[in-house]
Amino acid sequence: MSFCAFLGGEVFKSHFEPGIYVCAKCGYELFSSRAKYEHSSPWPAFTETIHEDSVAKRKERPGAYKVSCGRCGNGLGHEFLNDGPKRGQSRF
């Protein structure tokens, strides 16, 4: 499943089938469906990445990082600290 190919709307927000979400540009593994959860944002929400280097992060403001693919640099959105489903978890 390609992640962050947002042309025409987000098709994976309500998609909860087992699988791996990969970068739409280079195919690198980003998130597992096991880390996906329902959230009120218009985008899919995940608690963690598959690999430590799945994403690169750049601090944008307190509590938020700009996130891109760790392999090719494709923009993926944000990581919001302490906004996950459990206390202390992030939301990607």
Automatic annotation (TrEMBL):
Keywords: Cytoplasm, Cytoskeleton, Immunity, Innate immunity, Metal-binding, Nucleus, Oxidoreductase, Selenocysteine, Zinc
Cofactor requirements of the protein: Zn(2+)
Entries under Pfam families matching the protein: SelR
One GO cellular component, as annotated: cytoplasm
Main location as per UniProt: cytoplasm
Subcellular location as annotated: Cytoplasm, Cytoskeleton; Nucleus
Any one GO MF annotation of this record: peptide-methionine (R)-S-oxide reductase activity
Catalysis: reaction(s): L-methionyl-[protein] + [thioredoxin]-disulfide + H2O = L-methionyl-(R)-S-oxide-[protein] + [thioredoxin]-dithiol; [thioredoxin]-disulfide + L-methionine + H2O = L-methionine (R)-S-oxide + [thioredoxin]-dithiol
InterPro entries, alphabetized: Met_Sox_Rdtase_MsrB_dom, MsrB_Met_sulfoxide_reductase, Mss4-like_sf
GO biological process per UniProt: innate immune response; protein repair
Role this protein plays: Methionine-sulfoxide reductase that specifically reduces methionine (R)-sulfoxide back to methionine. While in many cases, methionine oxidation is the result of random oxidation following oxidative stress, methionine oxidation is also a post-translational modification that takes place on specific residue. Acts as a regulator of actin assembly by reducing methionine (R)-sulfoxide mediated by MICALs (MICAL1, MICAL2 or MICAL3) on actin, thereby promoting filament repolymerization. Plays a role in innate immunity by reducing oxidized actin, leading to actin repolymerization in macrophages.
Protein name: Methionine sulfoxide reductase B1
Gene: MSRB1
